[in-house]
Amino acid sequence: MEKLLPFKTIRGRIITYTAAAMLALAVITVTICFTVFQSFLRRNQIQSAEYNLQMVCHNVEDTMNNFTALSRWCSNNGEISHYLEAFKDRTRMPSISSGDSPLRITAISTYTRLKEEYRNTPRASEYITRVIISPVNRRNYLLVSDLAAAGTPDAAGTVARASYFEEMCAAPDYLWDGFHSDPFSLVDPEPTIPLIRPINSPYSDQVIGWSYCSVSARLITDSLRSYPQPPDSLLYVTIGSRSYVLEDGSFREGIPEYTVLSRVDGSANNPDTQVQKIRMANGSSRFLVTCPLGVEGWTISNILSESAFFAQRQVYLLIIGFITLIILCMGAGLALTLNKAIGRPVKRLCGKIDDIARGDFSRMEEIEGPDEFGIIGRGINGMSENVVTLMDKRVDDERQKKDLEYQILQSQINPHFLYNTLNSIKWMATIQNATGIAEMITSLARLMKNVSKGTAAQIPLKEELDLVKDYFLIQQYRYGGSITLDCQIGSEELYRCLIHRFTLQPIIENALFHGIEPKGCAGHILLSAQRVQSDLGTVLQISVTDNGVGMSREQIEKVLSAQSAPGADFFRQVGIHNVNQRIRYDFGEDYGISIDSVEGQYTTMTITLPYRLNEL
């Protein structure tokens, strides 16, 4: 079951995390790219529409500026003012034979000048259908036009009777009120933009006439003829308070229904261009770009095509998909690389661990390397070598322990027989009143009795001190009473502390034979025990100090390493080294015997043991 759950392994987790990271990177990249690309596409679409609209605006603006300049010229020209002043009260043109015949010359001259200005105005002949200069009485008017049917009777009256004439003529400036049907076309009238201005007398503010210029709506439709307009895009022009939708090359009055959702600032290049997000009547969201046409109150608007936007977005989606595919391929390649880079070293490490489990502790160089797995491999190789060293040391320690036990057993030469024999000698000495011999025999008998119990058991400190006192009593008789022993125990509780049997006797013996005896005079031994707090916790420290000849550093090392020559006394076969080793075997390397000595002054041997009390 665990093999089916790769996430439980480190390799599986790394591969999973890598795949998740690459997938997250792909999602983030796709999201950012899609957002940025869509924003870029929308901005590009808006700016492209703005550029196309501005091209139309510049064309219409330049032409309309020329036409309004012609209209203003007609209203302000002195020759035309003199003509109107001369004919303001006349209903008919003077005949050649009349006395006012010079007025005919004025009329011809003014007409010629008007026609010349008309001809000099760029594109006037293409889009201005008529120019009329008329007195207030609408008689003797001047009309310029390139249309074949321009000579309509009573043209000035036709214009004056139009519904918009009075309002436009009375306005302080040009009044833009959308397209109006050409009053001179009875069938399928062409939409035009009328430019009507009053003409004042050169001598007063009296209105003596008016000018009329009729601009064809083709001025705008021709400019929009090459404008790129997808089927779902809408174009409409606003002139004054009226709007017109461009359909099939002609204008239809009206405006599409929509609701403005928000302004879109910063998308257009020209600050005069207005961009809005709108909701159409069918619920779809669109963008509306509006540019001024250059004439006050004139604007042209484009509701952008969504089909064109989606078509361009498909291209970018393909690019994003390709980027995503590359990221996922990179992630798969990285996952395979990690699987290979992790799987092989782990397999070799597992193989080495299996070899160790089978007992092969040899060094394997293949699992070592400069990477982290190589560090682990070096650790495993070092551990296997340490295991071999530890096993060899353990075998050697066991061998030494067996040798020590064998030596102790050798020293136990039929102790029960010796104990019974010594007990008989004690009673004979008592009968003969030899108290010294009785005391020595009693002490020796107790020693033999303790020897018969072996050395492996632990006994209370009190029993060990009794054994030391028996041994020291025998040595006092040997040295004629020139040696003394003083025991200082820190508290009564310390008497219950457990200690190996025959731990203190070799220490006392060393103080006698290697410290006091070579000095050749009386000696003193101080034995103290105390409870101490150390890094090991609570420990029992027993110190044995003599005032003998002391020991050099070399002698201390020999005593602790069992290099000193054994004596004839069988107790001395146990030795300080054996005592030290036995303590370390049972309690660890931090416990045992330490020696401090100054040659010619003293020697102190300190035994450190775990603080354990006898519960019996």
Features:
single chain; 616 residues; Beta-Lactamase; Heat Shock Protein 90; five-stranded antiparallel beta sheet; 19 strands; disordered N terminus; HATPase_C_sf; phosphorelay sensor kinase activity; Sig_transdc_His_kin_internal
How does this model look, in words?
With 616 residues, the protein is of the alpha+beta class. Helices cover 48% and strands 21% of the residues. It is built from 15 helices and 19 strands. A hairpin with a 2-residue loop joins strand 7 (242-247) and strand 8. The chain is rod-shaped and about 205 Å long. 24% of the residues are buried. It comes from [Clostridium] asparagiforme DSM 15981.
Question: Topology of this protein?
Answer:
Elements (H helix, E strand, L loop, with lengths): L9 H67 L1 H10 L14 H19 L3 H4 E8 L6 E3 L10 H6 L4 H6 L9 E2 L9 E10 L6 E10 L1 H6 L10 E6 L2 E6 L2 E4 L4 E6 L10 E7 L4 E8 L5 E6 L2 H52 L14 H40 L3 H17 L3 H18 L5 E3 H18 L4 E7 L8 E3 L3 H13 L6 E12 L2 E10 L6 H8 L15 H12 L4 E7 L3 E9 L6
Provide a concise account of the structure shown.
InterPro entries: Bact_2-comp_sensor_kinase, HAMP_dom, HATPase_C_sf, HATPase_dom, Sig_transdc_His_kin_internal. By secondary structure, the protein is α+β, with helices and mostly antiparallel strands.
